[in-house]
Amino acid sequence: MPANRLRLPARGSFAAAIAVAAISALLALAAPADQARAAEPVPSIGIVKTVKGEAWVLADGVQTVATPGTPLTKGCVVRTGPAGTIGMTLKDDTVLALGPGSELLFDDFQFAPASGALGLVLGMVRGTLEYVSGAIARLRPESVSIQTPSATLGVRGTRFLLKVAE
Amino acid sequence: MATAAAVLVALGGCASAPTEPLFSREPGSYVVLLPGDDGHTGAVTVSNAQGTALLDRPMQAVEIDGASIRPMDVSEKQIERDFAGALAARPAPAEVFRLYFRTGEAALTPASQRLIAEILDATQRRPAADVSIIGHTDTEGDAPSNERLGLERARWVAALLARHGLHAREITVASHGERNPLVPTPDETREARNRRVEVIVR
Predict the structure, then answer these.
(1) Which residue in A has a C-alpha nearest to residue B173's C-alpha?
(2) ipTM score of the complex?
(3) Which has the minimum average pLDDT: A80-89, A122-131, B33-42?
(4) Quick one: which of A42, A110, B78, B90 is 20 to 30 A from A90 by CA?
(5) pLDDT per residue over B10-44, tens digit each?
(6) CB contact B183 to A (< 8 Å)
């Protein structure tokens, strides 16, 4: 759906991204195993489940109109419009919902208990959030934090609401 | 007589010390702790330049950019005013199906076999359903072997579900080995309840 995808010109480092892609392609030619890996999509850390009004997912400089099924990836940003809301689930069963005029960054997500890699770091820039914790907070609560412009929230396995006024 | 006096003292203490006043004005940025769906309330710590506050009771709140970081109560009306949109957008919590194998066999127990239809039904009922199929073991044996064993079991269940026509937006197959037990145990402990494959439908 090309109409849903909008390249953001002001995001910079576009040339750098192309250069990186070119180098990756060269490396892939040199090593067939890498080529196979490069062809796989970036693994999603969660999925959009509900949308009302306008909401977007910004990942790697590409902004996509969010609909149920839109994947979330590490480093992505989710935004809602003045009348938009969005509900999401993460792979560790964390449940997140944003009210209108919100912006949330997915700074880090690691969910591989067998290798001990666990972590969830979210950045709430503005707006309103409902948070219901998942397996990462149950297995290692100290690895979960939610940052706001003025505070850091530590989660001990729970459900809470957060409003960040502008 | 003594009991009545104790009750009066308790009530008096309660009435004279409303330690948690409501926000006296419109709060700016704040956090409110809510009870979970299971009725259990967890805890949140909030740290900023003023210090750290602990919220551990339902409806306890704290302003995060105010002059102080003292917990207060917040009214339901205030929550409704600020969070109606977010609360309405929240997706349903994940459904977890625990599958168990017959002892020493590559076959599910009859009770687990009956869950297959429910799993398929749940994926069809939910918007943009995604499914995780996670293998778990008990703590008997070493951790790397248990991770491999968990993955084998998860793949076996994934193949079974595929044959039954499982369709989802994303299907994740993984192993948590012995590191995410249902029933916590010491190491090197046989525990049948922990030897399972969890199918999580979101």
Answers:
(1) A91
(2) 0.86
(3) B33-42
(4) B78
(5) 333 333 333 455 677 778 999 999 999 888 999 99
(6) no
> What pLDDT does residue B96 have?
97
Longest Cα–Cα distance of chain A, Å, equals 51
Contacts with A155 from chain B: Cβ below 8 Å: 42, 44
CB contact (8 A) between residue A91 and residue B132 = yes
Mean pLDDT calculated for residue range B155-176: 96
Nearest-Cα distance to chain A for B14, in Å, is: 26
A164: nearest Cα among A125, A131, A134, A138: A125
CA distance B87 to chain A (A): 7
Instruction: Please check whether residue A128 touches B, CB under 8 A.
Output: yes
Helices within chain B (DSSP H only): 2-16, 76-89, 110-125, 143-163
Tokens matching residue B6: 């104790």
The CA distances from residue B103 to A36, B107, B159, B182, in Å, are 39, 9, 20, 18
Encoding tokens for residue A161? Answer: 């609401």
| Cβ-based contacts of B59 with chain A (< 8 Å) | none
Strand locations in chain A (E): 5-7, 46-52, 55-59, 62-65, 71-72, 77-80, 85-90, 95-98, 103-112, 117-132, 144-147, 151-155, 159-164
